[in-house]
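Hey Z.,

So I finally got round to the 1,3-dihydroxyacetonephosphate thing we talked about over coffee. Here's the setup:
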Amino acid sequence: MRKKVIAGNWKMNKTLAEAVQFVEDTKNRIPANDQVEAVVCAPFLFLPALVEKAKGTDLHIAAQNMHFEASGAFTGEVSPGMLKDAGVTYVVLGHSERRAYFAETDETVNKKTHAAFNVGLTPIVCVGETLEQRENNETMDHVEAQVKRAIAGLSDEQVKQVIIAYEPIWAIGTGKTATSEQANEVCTHIRKVVKANVSEAVADSVRIQYGGSVKPANVKELLLRSDIDGALVGGASLEADSFLQLVEAGVNE
Ligand SMILES: O=C(CO)COP(=O)(O)O
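And the result:
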């Protein structure tokens, strides 16, 4: 059985006080279980305080980005080692907003994925098509190319540990969720790509999330699908109760 991952991506939201309060409100309410990992992906500034607050609980703290270099003259950047040192365990890489607004490319995503493993962070690698690509029937080819480039050069064991988040760009923050069938179709394709490029055993183990307007009302249907192993959630992860409902849906599914 693949353990599901429900990750809340807060993006650029909350104050430090609000972030700490969220962890206070949720950390002891994650149901004890072996079916779901609960993760919040927070802005850099909040990470040490949230790690401290969540210590000894089932809530995991993630970063939303990082640089691929270990150190150096990269003003404004945060290194993989800094995240590891802060006690962070996961890092989101290649989110479509970073690709669109901050010149993230498949090449930098690949470098960052390697860099994450070098320090022992679990990467959550985002892929997904634009509306135009979907309308032109380019979804599968585009996502396939993104996945192949992201995992290039990783060992089989590392690919097994990567979490792949399929987030169709047209479904992010728009209220337009992909139907569970559309979402699963692409997640199934991603698993086939891993099988063809790595191995069947790795493909069977790799976890693939769906993201894009996921909320308590639609998460169950998504999680019931054969190849969807969790969700990467923006808006609906900002409130403690809503986040907990998403986690509980995974546990009860
Ligand atoms: O981008 C997302 C998560 O990374 C999805 O955001 P929404 O859930 O707000 O659509």
